[in-house]
Amino acid sequence: MTFQMIQDAHVRPELFKWNGRMTAETLNAWLREHGWQAAVPSDLFELWKETGGGDVFETETILGPMGDAALGDDIVAANRELHSRGMPEQFLAYYVGVNIGAVDVSQMEYVELDGTDFRSIRRFVSFDDWYSMTLRSEYQVRYGLP
Known about the structure:
- With 146 residues, this protein is an alpha+beta fold.
- The protein has one domain: SMI1/KNR4-like (3-Layer(aba) Sandwich), CATH 3.40.1580.
- It has six helices and seven strands, in the order αβααββαββββαα.
- It has helices at residues 4-11, 24-34, 42-51, 75-84, 127-133, 135-139; strands at 16-18, 54-56, 60-62, 91-96, 100-104, 109-113, 120-124.
- A hairpin with a 3-residue loop joins strand 2 and strand 3.
- The longest helix has 11 residues, at 24-34.
């Protein structure tokens, strides 16, 4: 699976600080341990295998299983904190920034949530759609991405 985000990282690697690759077995075991094996779409699974999540465009965070809670990019700690602030349990956040990127596990769709009241702003059919319409549309010109 080819991701636009990964292609952009090849063009401007200094803008993408990944946490590290994971094997499918390790990632599946981690998802089972946290009860999320049915909550993660296949494209997000593949992205996590490739990157482990990380920081992008200097200020944006793709949460992942390889994240560091002390740095705020650990998906477990971030979701626990967001749910405690009122984010509905049907959402599994994978991105934090101005808004929140999440999987609506009840629909298996990607959703952009307002960062203050967790209201759904937009829905997307894939991770690439989410990335292209949110982060990439914001940063493409600024960072000279093709």
